Amino acid sequence: MIAALPMYDRPDNWAAHDALWSLIRDGLRSRGNAAPDALDHGTDPMDEWGRPDLVLGQICNLP
After folding, report:
1. For residue 15, what are the domain limits?
2. Which end of the chain is more exposed for a tag (fewer CB within 10 A), N or C?
């Protein structure tokens, strides 16, 4: 199972992304949904989006 917020996923933003994910994760779990403990900061987004175990991903339609 994987979750990622790859837009602006730079080390200087990881704490903010991780804090956001913890709120999302806890909300999912409180509703009986499985969610990974932490965001994935290392997988290429093109590989993430095609995974059947993707819980949350992020994409932008503009460069």
Report:
1. 2-56
2. C
